[in-house]
Amino acid sequence: MYLVVINTAGKQRYIFSSRKRKEIVGASDLIARVNGSWTEDALEATFPGFSLEWRLKDGHAAELITASAGSVTVLVREPDAGRRLVTELTRRALHEAPGLDVCGVVQEVGGSEPLARSRERAGKALAALQEARPGPQARFPRLPLVEDCESTGLPAAGLRREASDEPLVTRSAASMAKLAHFPAALERLAVDARTTPPTMRKIVDRLGLEADWVAVVHADGNGFGQLFRGLGGSRDEVSSRVRGDDTYMEELRTLSRGADRCALRAFHVALDQLADEYAVWNVDGSPPVLPLVLGGDDLTVLCQGQVALPFTRHYLEAFERETAADAALRPVLATAHRTRLDAAAGVAIVKRHYPFRFAYDLAEELITTEAKQVKEWASALAFTVLLESSAPDLSRLRRSVISSCGAAATASPYVVGQGGRDARAEGRRWTDLERRVAALRRRDADSGEPLVPGSAAHDLREGLCLGVDVAEARVGLLRTRFAGDRDRLRALNELGDESGRLVWDHEGRLVTGLVDAMAALPFLSGEGESG
User: Fold this and answer.
1) How many domains are there within the chain?
2) S-S: 338 plus which of 96, 333, 400, 490, CB 3.0-4.6 Å?
3) What is the pTM of this model?
């Protein structure tokens, strides 16, 4: 047997290489086609009559194991057939998606080596091959000299009008391919979001032309690599290779398809909750959310800033619930002593004209440096609101808010879902963030003024920059000022942890939730007018 592994590298870079929303949407559709219609066509061309029900043990020539998020794994009998499959799929990508990096390897499976280990070896061989060969940029030579594409900076391949009443502008081959797939992308997105293509077009226009704030949301599963490596039983159990391989393939297929299924359901749940809770931002009844990548444990969406945080919270919680309730997934998870799948998410909220490739990098860094801190036991999200125009550096952004004199760090990440029941999440639960935001928003019933004035909140934040002692002293002054007003005192105490402390010790590190609450205030109120 031979294992065929095909992967799309640099998906996010390909999607966000342009600042044009239509190109971003079109790029997402091209990636979806790699493991979708293009894989189906390549399998049919290589193995006439191919069906998803084909199994090698039943005498068929090929068996599809996984196809998700731009990656495909197929088991075949003949190496030449595997190479033809790789050729069919990569040639299709080369012609229809210039600049997309699709590569594949054919790895022999045999002897006493379990299929799980062969798959690991194939993955390493594929990574080495992609690293050694020239990248997609080498496909676009600069000689002879040509103009740059206005959108991507690649060599221009033609001229195109943005609209019938606008002038011709230069466009690269990659840019034109993405634009050509924009109508098809709207059709796919409409299906995923359970709406219509005209509504999806309006959402694209809202995000590109009207919204003040937009957000890149990226979510990644926790412990998926370890879970995949544990499929098919332990290393001792797979010494019986035939039994081990059959178990491994079925569990791998079940986990991959189950994660896809649950991610889509969780996405629908999150949209439904947004449509009800944040209806003021809806576009023809649909939340302003564009699902660019939605497959397995990988989620990337572009959305209006005002719905980004609640969407992410609802998605993570729904993903936990859906995976825990999925009957097909339950036996596979049980072998790893898990009852559910969870995930980590990063949310970068930026101004509409900010380059999305930087926003995505920031969202990804939020996952790796903050949200994954609790990956062993909970789902969590980390976020930032970017108020500057330079390329982001998360560590600098965090230091610039509260930095000197031993002041506290942010309480991020915020735990959502079942992990919120854990004592380790104290002060850092999503409900804690909501409580602090509500305290900042709460107003006096008679005067209508904020119980905690904005000037007082900013004074506390400034105190954090000057040191914990200064911040605590300013809290004391406010308590004296609010003496006799229980509502104001209660709101002030709710800005801290469950004991009312503005700064508290978390695992040997001083943290505070005030700065995050002030940043989240405009994006958790559900108030305001759309646009």
Assistant:
1) 3
2) 333
3) 0.93
